[in-house]
Amino acid sequence: MSPEPSAGAAPAAPSGAAPPTLSVVIPVRNEAPNIGPLVAEIEAALAAVPHEIVYVDDGSTDDTWAALQAAREVGAPVHALRHKASCGQSAAVITGVKAARGRWIATLDGDGQNDPADIPKMLARAEAEAAAGRRTLVAGHRVNRKDSGIKRYSSRIANAVRSRLLKDATPDTGCGLKVFARDLFLDLPHFDHMHRFLPALTLRQGGSVVSEPVNHRPRVRGASNYGTLDRLLVSIFDLIGMAWLQRRGKRPAIERDTGP
């Protein structure tokens, strides 16, 4: 699925400015009270890493856009883009990664449940994998989840079924905190709900996946945009489609002409 053209994008960085090492891409919808606190946490966690924060407002109907402008006005390196209407989380991630300038991408949910303090160790692991010649997605693993009992139970079932069917080597693909190379993501097929299957898509592309234990926190501001039953029904159809896509994937071995 192609993301809807964005509106209200922040001004581009000067053409001579050096690109940051890391772009933190955050899709949000109706998360106004979480913008300021999360930006402050990211800034503290990444004080030693050249970075930018790319927010994509996916058709919010609250004051999310105003909160993003306020974050920029106090000097945070926030670049904000907005979908005129909600296109879904995957479309927002795609929009954000395409707009990002960093070699590395960190994604995290905008509800404050992911801890930005985990990003540096995940980035270090991704860089070590790259130094060893591997294109690796580093996936967060919420080992001590702070969600409701029904949400944890349904997620446990979904992860088990997905892992058995797709063999994606990931215990917690639903964790929004991931770190990967921007060019790896741009090589993947893009479609609605693809964010749920980034590990499987990475493996399909010839990359590798490693999991990193991360902190998980309860939501303290705002309300969830997702229900349990509707997400489960969508996931069933998505799994079938993803299994089909895996079987159709081919990775040709390329031999280069070594002549003059």
UniProtKB/TrEMBL annotation:
Superkingdom in the source lineage: Bacteria
Gene Ontology MF: a single term: undecaprenyl-phosphate 4-deoxy-4-formamido-L-arabinose transferase activity
GO biological process: lipopolysaccharide biosynthetic process
Protein's UniProt keywords contain Transmembrane: yes
Keyword presence, Transmembrane helix: yes
Coiled coil regions, renumbered to chain: none
InterPro entries registered for this protein in UniProt: Glyco_trans_2-like (IPR001173), Glycosyltransferase_2 (IPR050256), Nucleotide-diphossugar_trans (IPR029044)
A Pfam family it matches: Glycos_transf_2
Annotated Glycosyltransferase 2-like domain residues: 23-185
Cellular component, GO annotation: plasma membrane
Keywords per UniProt: Cell membrane, Glycosyltransferase, Lipopolysaccharide biosynthesis, Membrane, Transferase, Transmembrane, Transmembrane helix
Name this protein carries in UniProt: Glycosyltransferase family 2 protein
